[in-house]
Amino acid sequence: MAGEGQKQREKESGMATIQELKEQYEGLNELDHTFNMESEDKINSDCLITFDYEYAGQEAEVAIDTDEFTAVCPWTGLPDFGTLIIKYVPSDTCIELKSLKYYLLSYTSVGIVQEHAANRVLNDLVALCKPVRMDITLDYKVRGGLHTVVRAKYESV
Q1: For tag attachment on the chain, is the N or C end more exposed, with fewer CB atoms within 10 Å?
Q2: What pLDDT digit, counting tens, does each position of 30-82 carry?
Q3: End-to-end CA separation in angstroms for the chain
Q4: How confident is the model over 85-135, as pLDDT tens digits?
Q5: Is the pLDDT of residue 143 over 90?
């Protein structure tokens, strides 16, 4: 327990005591915390475009990464930040990068679980460019002491 001298200093400095802070935080979980959260319908895959790959049949792996991927937890509305790595071998088309950036930005306020986000990105990009193969890795920042990495893969038949 804090001594009387420490309590007096806290009072004089305007700092809240530990007990006062505990009392202030007791009702936090009961408060109506609402965040603006969009449904998965707001993910805009229509903005994605491709360009012709002039070396079809010649295997070359394309790797794209960004540390700016953001979506929100569908239960709390709190942001999930992650590094997204896209690796693919093009078949006939390549993903145009500016359109990819706009597509990824459409996740910003969408409530989606981490595992579904990686698979949604994979499904949208495979439908777009029909690659020979594609790997998506979504490496999230630590939240609540837990580190999550989701990998989703596609290989054409």
Answers
A1: C
A2: 555 567 789 999 999 999 999 999 998 899 999 999 999 999 988 888 899 99
A3: 68
A4: 999 999 999 999 999 999 999 999 999 999 999 999 999 999 999 999 999
A5: no
Tokens of 142: 């630590």
Q: Which pair of tokens denotes residue 96?
A: 């145009």
**Active site amino acids:** 73, 80
Provide the β-strand partners of residue 87: 63, 135
Angle at 74 between CA 73 and CA 80, to 5 degrees: 15
> So where are the chain's domains?
1-31, 40-155
Strand bridging mode 62-72 / 79-89: antiparallel
CA separation for the pair 113, 133 (Å, rounded): 24
User: Which residue in 117, 122, 108, 123 sits closest to 70, CA to CA?
Assistant: 108
Q: Is 77 left (phi over 0), alpha (psi -120 to 50) or beta?
A: left
Residue 127 makes CB contacts below 8 A (sequence gap 6+) with: 45
Per-residue confidence (pLDDT) for residue 9, from 0 to 100: 58
40-155: what CATH class?
alpha beta
